[in-house]
Amino acid sequence: MRTFFHKLTGCNRCNILFFVFSLLVVLPFFYALKYSLPSADDFSYMALTKYSEHNRFVASVLLAVSSYKNWGGGWLGTFFQIFVLSFHQFGIGGLHVLLSVCMMFFLCSLYFLCRTICVNFFRVRYYVVFYFLVLLVGFNAVSPRESLYWAVGSTGYIVPFSFAFCALSFLVKYLFSRKNIYYVLMIVFGVIVCSSTLPAAGLINATYLLYAVGQMAKNKKTELRAVLPFLLVFAAALIIALAPGNFVRHSFFSKDGMHFFNVCGSTLIVLVRLLKNLLKNSFLFMGMACLFFFVLIRKRTDEKEKSIAFSPFFSGIIFLVLCYVFLFPVQLGYGGNRASPDRIEFMMYFIIAIFAYTFTIHLAFWCRTHFHTYINYDCIPFVVVLMLCFFLVEIHALEVRKHFWVIAVKELSDGTMKAFYEEGQKALVILRSTTDKNVVISGKKVESKILNSIALRNDPHDWVNKAVANFYGKEAVVYNTSEFSE
Fold this sequence. Notes:
By secondary structure, the chain is mostly helical. It contains 22 helices and 2 strands. It has a two-stranded parallel ribbon. Helix 2 runs parallel beside helix 7 (127-141), helix 9 (151-177) packs parallel to helix 11 and helix 15 (284-297) packs parallel to helix 18. It is globular.
């Protein structure tokens, strides 16, 4: 066991300590998966294959093609969503396994990216500290209900972004090792991402383009090996960007047509709002301060520091551009109405945290290299006390009780999640067991800020009610919302 932890965390006590902290951040959210329920689009996707005359695979392919023509371009992501949800006969237990696997994939790919950035770019071994700070920000900035506790959201967003984290990791690894296996993997994972969802495709394309331009500038010539990854991911992204379904979806959310400059402005406004929210209501700034001082304390050789001596302000601008590129397809899809679903914000906050902490480490090394700024080891106790005081002030100022980790722990401990799940289960049992074609269900009012509800309404004509009725073979379903709300 001791050997395992040494290998896993980089053979130092600090990483082991922050590995435990990371587990404490994740565990409440992971445990809450046992109270997940099918919700909204889950029923629509399950019904599509349930009543299809084809087998699961063929039906999923045909439905993905139909979606490509009539709703959205991410054909591979749509296929994966429909195919996975076609195994609905495994019930709630199968749903919990699916969501658990998706969350584990996300956490592992995020760890892989954090470790790759720290080890390859900066030659630092305290990557678990980096990972913990990213988790602390990402899991507390917005409710994870649409990302972690909704099958369609988890398979359609969490999984593609996990592939994106892996693609970026392989890109960095190839950049420093030049191993062919990493080159192939960065292409394969990049194409998968760019065939699944546009926001992640924008991020991957922009990053691969930067890599190609950087290699051409460094070698002072155009090399196919440097350009090929970008050309392939760009082609994959172009296929989903020009899908007829995207234009159908856009017309649904915007009746006034496509206004490019309005979308550009809306994207900037949304990005500024998200950045402002993170700086004001999260531990992002505190994490940046901790990493900055941490690097100033650490000993480095001049040779290593020269390798990252270019201006960090340039990398900061690049990070902001990448965040903008990530959000642009979202605003384009919603007609520039400044809408930002929780599932998009959830991923955006993680990306901002990764970029912000990478910039901070870069800035600290740059200060050491150019200004010979460092903290003497005799001053470490003072710095630790200063950071603890800063942390206590942050806890008071940020109203930590409103953070979603605290809310998740509270809902688990006081039985809110269990009661929420039981009410949802009662509704599903009634729908499965009753022979009535017109079903009226009543339940207690139980609310959760973490979990995603079934989303039934007291209107039988609501699209969710219709989807649920269709899946269970009913003519109409009504949920008494006078006694129940999300």
